[in-house]
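name: query_chain
kind: protein
chains: 1
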Amino acid sequence: LRGDPRLISLEPSSLDDVFGTISFLVELTGHTDGAEALLAGLRSRVDALQARAHNRPRRPRVLALEWTDPPMSGGHWTPGLVELAGATPVLGNPGANSRVLAWDEIAREDPDEIVVGPCGFDLARTHQAVAELETNATWRSLRAVCEGRVYPIDGNAYLNRPGPRLVDTAEIIATRLYAETPRTGTPATTQSR
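structure:
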């Protein structure tokens, strides 16, 4: 390579960190065209989600699984996205790596809803991972499973990568939890059991 290349390590651990990373890259590269509008649009959508969450009569307890065998909790930005969607995250690890969960720990919490988005899995593979959980007696005993409130999501596209799509993710989760009409352009990436 000619010139003096720079290596920049970007490791956001929350949605606010993602917004800060976008601003940093805009400044670093000088590509300001559209960046302010992008960030303003994302923040406007976050504000709308927060307003709706504030007015919710109930906040379901949601377990976000980023892996199924062994089960792993949602880390980094995932608990914040669950909160932004108007729910209370269960067994999350905000701002830090996902962690392995024990099935008895999950059973004690017995979440109201479960979002499943394994790292690197598309929606079809996520549905397969959820189907494989049916052999686990503890999984089958969970209230969310018994009542059909398990929501597979394309983790590869929407949950596991830090970027603007994380706002889409919070909107998708809110849509599933509260049966809302998704905003125009938000892909229908989840299906209930």
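note: The radius of gyration is 18 Å.
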